[in-house]
Amino acid sequence: AQRVTQPEKLLSVFKGAPVELKCNYSYSGSPELFWYVQYSRQRLQLLLRHISRESIKGFTADLNKGETSFHLKKPFAQEEDSAMYYCALREAGNNRKLIWGLGTSLAVNP
Amino acid sequence: SQTIHQWPATLVQPVGSPLSLECTVEGTSNPNLYWYRQAAGRGLQLLFYSVGIGQISSEVPQNLSASRPQDRQFILSSKKLLLSDSGFYLCAWSVSVEAFFGQGTRLTVV
Q1: Mutation site for B-interface testing, chosen from A98, A104, A105 by largest number of B Cβ within 10 Å
Q2: pLDDT tens digits, residue range B58-88?
Q3: Which of B15, B33, B92, B95 places its Cα 20 to 30 Å from the Cα of B24?
Q4: Given an 8 Å threshold on Cβ–Cβ distance, is A102 in contact with B102?
């Protein structure tokens, strides 16, 4: 069955430290993978997707098919990065549903 | 531009009372519509999704139902609320890749 695993419920780092939020998936086909973010009192919103290969707010994520991972990374965390982060997977050719991880709460301390 | 409205923002209802949460989308046609429940430690649980008027798919058995009376209107309902229905409910829409979320409704059943 398709599944997205975010092993860390809570990740706490100091400002300026590197941060990596882990995401592993199980899917037999070619998935599309996403990171969504929810800042305090704001809507859940798309942060980035693997197809775009872009860097948003200093974050990058590389799809590693061998390790079935899509970890979110930032070399120098900022306090404003504190938020809830969700990894999600969409089945190839299926625009209807996203499969979500349980989320990781990132706290960046001054 | 597209917007999504979800109301009310908070709701306190007694056990056994009915529920109606409404979600409307503007600026797009024939969107896929979703109802999620977000709980700490449980991530995003997809409750219902709809690909068109009157077409509802239920993801989990529960005390809730959904309806789509118009193209851009999605309603989450219950005839008799249970204590376990308390939670944070999110409406979302998508037409292709990205999902857009409403502000959410905090439902407390007392």
Answers
A1: A98
A2: 888 778 999 999 999 999 999 999 999 999 9
A3: B15
A4: no
